[in-house]
Write a structure and sequence with these properties.
By secondary structure, this protein is of the alpha/beta class. Helices cover about 15% and strands about 35% of the residues. The protein contains five helices and 18 strands. The chain has helices at about 25-35, 75-85, 110-120, 190, 275-285, and strands spanning about 10-15, 40-45, 55, 70-75, 90-95, 105, 125-135, 140-145, 145-150, 160-165, 170-175, 175-180, 205-210, 220, 225-230, 240-245, 245-250, 255-270. It has a six-stranded parallel sheet, with helices on both faces. The protein has a six-stranded antiparallel sheet with strand order 8-7-18-15-10-11, with helices on one face. Helix 1 packs parallel to helix 3. It is globular and about 65 Å long.
Length: about 300
């Protein structure tokens, strides 16, 4: 079992569902288990797919007093559940009903085992770093659990950006944009852009230029407490600002943004014994070279 900060049995379980997906089989499985175990289920008041027995709440308060929130879907559903649960300190267990589902813990075929683990205290909780995007004039502070991405607006030229760390200039470059990722989010857009694979239990921030023009094309890893400043330089194309894949707005030349890593911003449930390396191999399809195919994982020749 992975390292944990606390363990306890589940008596109240929140449900977050992937939009526009038939989840009848999984929901009936959960309903039957909850009825047998005496566990209260809680869901959003506007969600018509939930069984009648589920307690309804406004979405913003769904996670209040829940022991765990169960996200039924893929990575997008998992991130949505984190946005609802993290402000209340409630951990999230992701069930993959999509394709890759890197952030999710279990597949649909293993749902019953995961529910049993929740019921009998056989689960752990891992902490996750978030990224706080400092408040803008039109919005409050925003927390990202995967990444904050600045991207040039198509058809308007390159984004010209200046990156500062704690106010000190690091680099200026023209590019398609910049990706600031959490360790958990290192396997998403940042990884696709050539960034490093980072354990989700790490702290700090990964900063990855997106298709830069110039000599500087490396990822930078910032420590907890170091603040990333992004200046949109004169002559730059306007940029869009996304948090976890959702558009927050646009910014023009002259604007500045600040991003700070927030340790322990969210919690996720672990029910598998395997760690970061096992999940990375399985979910990213990491394969050994052909010349090593005759050796097992312990290094023994077959």
């Amino acid at each position: 079992m992975p390292p944990t900060d606390t363990m306890r049995g589940v008596r109240r379980l929140g449900l977050v569902l992937r939009p526009e997906r038939n989840l009848d089989d999984s929901l009936e499985q959960i309903r039957g288990w909850a009825a047998s175990a005496g566990i209260e289920l809680v869901g959003a008041e506007a969600e018509e797919r939930l069984p009648e027995e589920v307690t309804r709440r406004a979405e913003t308060t769904l996670a209040t007093d829940c022991d765990v929130v169960l996200a039924l879907g893929g990575d997008g559903t998992m991130l949505g559940a984190l946005r609802l649960a993290a402000p209340h300190g409630v951990p999230v267990l992701g069930v993959n009903l999509g394709r890759l589902g890197y952030l999710t813990e279990v597949d649909a075929a293993n749902l019953q085992g995961a529910l049993t683990a929740l019921e009998h205290d056989q689960y752990g909780i891992e902490l996750r770093t978030g990224l706080m995007l400092a408040p803008r004039e039109d919005q409050g502070a925003q927390i990202a659990y995967n990444d904050v991405v600045l991207s040039r607006v198509p058809g308007r030229g390159q984004a010209a950006l200046g990156l500062r760390v704690d106010g000190e200039l690091l680099v200026r470059y023209a590019s398609d944009g910049v990706i600031a990722a959490t360790p958990q989010g290192s396997t998403a857009y940042a990884f696709a852009a050539g960034g490093p694979l980072v354990s989700p239990r790490a702290q700090g921030m990964i900063v990855m230029p997106d298709a830069p023009h110039g000599l500087f094309n490396r990822a930078v890893v910032l420590a907890e407490g170091e603040r990333l400043g992004i200046e949109i330089l004169p002559g730059s194309a306007p940029v869009s600002i996304e948090r976890d894949g959702r558009l927050l707005g646009h910014a023009e030349a002259g604007a500045t943004l600040e991003i700070l890593a927030q340790p322990d911003a969210a919690r996720v449930v672990r029910v598998h014994a395997g760690g970061f390396a096992e999940r990375a191999r399985r979910k990213l399809g990491i394969a050994d070279p052909a010349g090593l195919a005759d050796f097992d994982l312990a290094g023994h020749e077959r």
